[in-house]
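User: structure tokens for this one?
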Amino acid sequence: MTFPSNSIKIILPFGPPGFSSRVGFSLQPHLSKFLRTKITFEHITGGLGGSNGPRAAAKCAPDGYSLLLATIGNIALLPNILSDYGIDPIKSFIPVTKIAVTPNILVARTGLGATSLNDILKLAQEHPGKLKFHGINERSIHMLEFKSLIAETSIKLNSIKPEGGSEGAIRAMKNGEIDLTITTGPRLLEGIRLGEFVAIAAISDQRTTFYPEIPTMAELGLKTIGSGSWTGLFVPKGVPNHILKKIFDATIYAAQKKTVVQELNEQAAVIDLNNSLGDALDFIKNETDRLRKACAASNFS
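Assistant:
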């Protein structure tokens, strides 16, 4: 039977405002056109670090009709820190391709009086444990980024139990309930431009055109904090090669459409595709190993 003969479902582990959901919505019409079938979404949210979506996707039939749009956190981080995850993404899924990347940004509340990382470090040293931070989720890439910052600078910060994810952190920042948070570029772009909070440093390989004025952590001398967030497409292990190739080709076609590139650029994200299925697998293995080392260095478990 020719694939696809039915609609295709993409599982999203985070809610509609999230980075991966935005990428999925941008791709949807172009995937549908290439594959000549309906593309639907199923939000399976919840679980530490967005673990429920991947767990559900791993149980789907390996027929190409159930896909997973996942992130650095629930693919490369959770296997290193979540003992009861119940799946091994490298063994449970076949990575189709990384699709898009975005910087994570350390921001401070406007009333804190800090405009640079040096300001943050000085305040933390003068008032140990007073500065409050929100790490989005107890098992998120953002919590690892905070743990890495703390370990590398030897400062003491007060962790406020994450509630409400990125939206909850942003509300808490605006209300003056916390002093610092780290989350993805798409969540923060508008607020930074409106002056609702102060951008301190970008967690990315290099400065981006979206935040050209914000120095990277690496520029500021911090080496272990990471390189931002990414999202990619995955299928359950066992999908036949001819179906896998068709999904790969469809994703590459959709991601390179000018409208998709523009839509993601407007949300502080850029398209960043793997060259092949083999390249995608190597990338996931390397990211998982990189984060294992970062977790060990910051005692994050």
